[in-house]
Design a protein that fits this description.
about 240 residues; alpha/beta; 2 domains; six-stranded parallel beta sheet; 11 helices
Length: about 240
């Protein structure tokens, strides 16, 4: 007997090229709060005070204290079944690209290989003086941290009002255009330009599989709208 899950699974199995777009909902099931849901970060804080270049220039220590709190919480989180299912899909697909809005590195920890990080990486620090970037997973106690050159370090994430990493959106769009299937998991589809990848896929004839607990603005337009937690639904696509 046919069902949306079964039909979606068959499409995934037959696909030659798969693109995936993930959002904060995928990480939420590993215990990392989202930003916009009830109890999310922006319910407690103003993004203007924590996630803009102006906020950092005004009070870098305060911003770093918040990011270091996030880093400590993320450090104890582990990939969930949704992350692991995407790794399994990547290993089976002839071509696969994972496009993520998440900065926590859980996709990397799970074993994902071909990943485009649209919003940066919280484990990268960047020097405002020399521009050097480096991975730093240590506990940062002397805030704001300093580079070896003496310059101040900032989190390697994309703040409101900043450009995405150079070439990231172009590579993401190219992967979506070349895909047979776009899996959209754990995102409210409200943050652009990432959300624009969904109508791009539809316009290019890709079958879009939406995996999210709630309906989004695109639920009526996608090929499969599978409502539920990604940690439960994604493994069923294997």
């Amino acid at each position: 007997m046919s069902s949306p899950i079964k039909d979606a699974r068959e499409r995934v199995r037959a696909a030659k090229a798969i693109a995936v777009l993930t959002g904060a909902g995928v990480s939420a099931e590993s215990g990392i709060p989202t930003f916009r849901s009830n109890g999310g970060y922006w319910q407690k804080y103003r993004f203007e005070d924590l996630a803009t270049p102006q906020a950092f220039a005004r009070d870098p220590k305060f911003v770093w204290q918040w990011y270091e709190e996030r880093r400590r919480a993320i450090a104890v989180a582990r990939p969930n079944a949704g992350h692991e299912a995407l790794v399994a899909i990547e290993r089976r697909a002839p071509r696969f690209t994972l496009i993520t809005q998440n900065v926590d590195g859980l996709h990397d920890l799970a074993g994902s290989q071909n990943t485009i990080k649209l919003h940066g990486d919280i484990w990268i620090v960047r020097c405002l003086k020399c521009g050097r970037e480096q991975v730093d997973r240590s506990e940062l106690t002397d805030l704001p941290p300093k580079c070896a050159c003496g310059g101040m370090l900032r989190p390697g994430v994309v703040w409101f009002g900043e450009m995405l990493p150079e070439g990231a959106m172009e590579r993401a769009a190219a992967a979506v255009k070349a895909s047979d299937i776009l899996i959209v998991a754990g995102t409210s589809a409200q943050v652009y330009p990432a959300a624009g990848l969904i109508p791009l896929a539809i316009a290019n004839g890709s079958a879009v599989i939406e995996v999210n607990p709630d309906a989004t603005d695109f639920s009526d337009d996608v090929a499969f709208a599978l409502h539920g937690p990604s940690a439960e639904i994604l493994p069923q696509l294997l």
